[in-house]
Amino acid sequence: MTESKSMGLWSATSIGVGAMVGAGIFSIFGTATQISGNAVYISFIIAGAIALLSTYSYAKLGVRYPSAGGPVEFLIHGFGDRILTGALNLLLWTGYIFALALYAKGFALYALTLVPVASTSLWTNVFATLIIVIFTAINFIGAKAVGKSELFIVSIKVGILLLFAVSGLFFIDSSNLSVTEFPSTSNILFGAGIVFLAYQGFGLITNAAEDMIDPQKTLPRALYLSVIIVICIYVLVSITVIGNLSISTISTAKDYALAAAAQPFLGNSGFTIMAIAALFSTSSAINASLYGGANISYLIAKEGELPAFFERKVWNRSTEGLFITSGLVILCINLLNLEGISMIASASLLVIYVAVNASHLRLVNETGAKHYIIWSSLISSIVFFGILVYYEILNSITTLVVFAFILALCFIVEWAYRNYSSRILKTRTNGGNKL
């Protein structure tokens, strides 16, 4: 590569923190609390531990195969040019689509608290659709990558959440956190399956490996640091919300629980500040997911490889991909409920983690990684996926059927497109564009 590398540790870390913090916790906190009760912070710790284990494979593989392709690059190296690899890339793209739908609905639910409109499903879908249309239009016109300003944006977002969490600790009602009120262990695990989506995003750091200063050191540190920072933020925020609101109150205000939790100690202005922070966070996540991850997955699905120079936030090679992605997101917004969206997105992400770890086992001699850590990550991801499936068997067979249909469709589409176009999958570091 001849392009200059200018991304340092904190800029790289901000990509992961920015992708994880905010949108996930704003969108699904209320739903998770309905399942995990006042032990929701334990659910965040468990989900964070699973994510932290997976960072090991992402770190080792990212150093060995630095590419904007991220996890797809790892899968191609591990499994080769197969239908399995292409289908998993399509599943990753699908995961971004569901995450975008979730973030858009989160945006809409908080927006409805600031405007004099009845909080109905109709208006939720209207606002969610509108925010996707706006970002699609901006990107189509030709939005430029933000660059170093991402660190500044993330600092503001994290700062607001930390101010809320730390301030609220002084006003908590300790009885709300009583261990005697904890739900069953299964509910805590089920809740962890739902909040796992809140850690979606750390893998985007590997997509920036080509731009990092000394990626051998910067990439692993940025991955571990981002996940640890996010675990701490989520736990603090969870304790503050639970400590300031009863479970019944959170259930009533589940769609805007964080804003409601700020009201007791910050007043109406606190509610407004947190609602605005939610709008900012969900918008930022929509931007990152639409212009970054979904763009990459679509281009690989279509062309089999990324161009030598990839501008992550502009769909300048395949504008039809922008409209296809946005159209599918809008369909999800209008056809699925919030919990169904979060389950499918979390399940898709877990399948990718399982695949990346399995791929890593085939490449362990090249990465020099420790087998037992990879196996720990692989097994924990499989178990966690099983827990999520079991929860849906008990609560929503329809959601599980939809996910199974999507998984099968990814394989069918990959097989059909591969035969139609004769497209093959290439890596950036072997058989594709050289670094």
From TrEMBL:
A cellular-component GO term for this protein: plasma membrane
User: Known Gene3D superfamilies for this protein?
Assistant: Amino acid/polyamine transporter I
Where does the UniProt entry say this protein principally localizes?
membrane
Q: One MF term from GO for this chain?
A: transmembrane transporter activity
The family database entries (InterPro entries) matched by this protein are listed as: AA/rel_permease1 (IPR002293), APC_superfamily (IPR050367)
Listed A to Z, the keywords are: Cell membrane, Membrane, Transmembrane, Transmembrane helix
Pfam families cross-referenced by the UniProt entry: AA_permease_2
Membrane topology of the entry: Multi-pass membrane protein
| RNA-binding is among the record's keywords | no
- In terms of superkingdom, the source organism counts as Archaea
Where in or outside the cell it occurs: the entry states: Cell membrane
Query: Where is the chain membrane-spanning?
Result: 7-29, 41-59, 90-110, 122-142, 151-172, 188-210, 222-247, 321-338, 344-365, 372-391, 397-417
Q: What PANTHER family does the annotation carry?
A: AMINO ACID TRANSPORTER-RELATED, INNER MEMBRANE TRANSPORT PROTEIN YBAT
Q: What is this protein called?
A: APC family permease
Q: What is the lineage of its organism?
A: Archaea, Methanobacteriati, Methanobacteriota, Stenosarchaea group, Methanomicrobia
